[in-house]
Amino acid sequence: IRERLGERPIVLVGLMGAGKTTVGRRVASLLSLPFVDSDAEIETVSTMTVPELFEAYGEPEFRALEARVIARLVQDGRRVIATGGGAYMNADTRALLAEKAVTVWLKADLDTLMERVGRRADRPLLKAANPRKVMQELMDMRYPVYAKADLTVVSRAVKRDVIADELIEALG
Ligand code: S3P
Asked: What positions does the entry give for Mg(2+) binding (predicted)?
């Protein structure tokens, strides 16, 4: 992986609550690289929040914007990019990342994910009556796809500093 890394960005994928933003920020700081979060970038360019975008334009529009933003972010050289949980489901985005980035799946179990998204109302996909069931369905659908990432790092309920260290170790 170290060889493959070269000047490529390190791109974190995985479900909501896996810790992509927190771990990504920490990894970037340890490696002295810039950090960027695709949801935050989308909010900056659209001047709307993610829930507002879902509400106003619907999920397909959000996904199209997300793919464009990520395509731009990966062109900007070596950095750490945390992506929104659905970004890696886009086949074009996956192909682009396979070519231009090193991808890391932050894999977590259902309890860990639910604990971390628990008190936050900023995930439109989890507004359902039974968010735990939705999360389980997303795990079933997405885990086989996330598994295509270059590396998998298990994100457990320990301090995320530990996960960041493990991620850097996995990079070789
Ligand atoms: C989504 C994950 C969110 C955000 C949007 C949709 C998803 O990002 O992009 O709510 O489809 O899993 P995080 O994974 O950063 O919460």
From this structure: 21
Top mutation candidate among 50, 61, 137, 140 for ligand 1, by most atoms within 8 Å of CB: 50
Domain contains 166? no
Pick from 126, 124, 116, 98: nearest CA to 155: 116
71 vs 101: CA distance, rounded Å: 11
Query: Is there an atom of ligand 1 within 6 Å of 41 CB?
Result: no
CATH code, 123: 3.40.50.300
Question: What confidence tens digit (pLDDT) does each residue in 135-170 have?
Answer: 999 999 999 999 999 999 999 877 888 999 999 999
Tens digits of residue pLDDT in 29-70: 999 999 999 999 999 999 999 999 999 999 999 999 999 999
Contact (CB, 8 A) for 131 and 121: no
- What pLDDT sits at residue 74? 97
Ligand 1 mutation target, pool 16, 57, 63, most atoms within 8 A of CB: 16
Question: By alpha-carbon position, which residue is closest to atom 10 of ligand 1?
Answer: 123
Does residue 172 sit within a domain?
A: no
169, part of any domain: no
Tell the residue nearest (CA) to atom 15 of ligand 1: 84
Residue 99 in any domain: the answer is: yes
Structural domain count of the chain: 1
Q: What is the model's pTM?
A: 0.95
Q: Which domain holds residue 24?
A: 2-161
What's the pLDDT at 1?
81
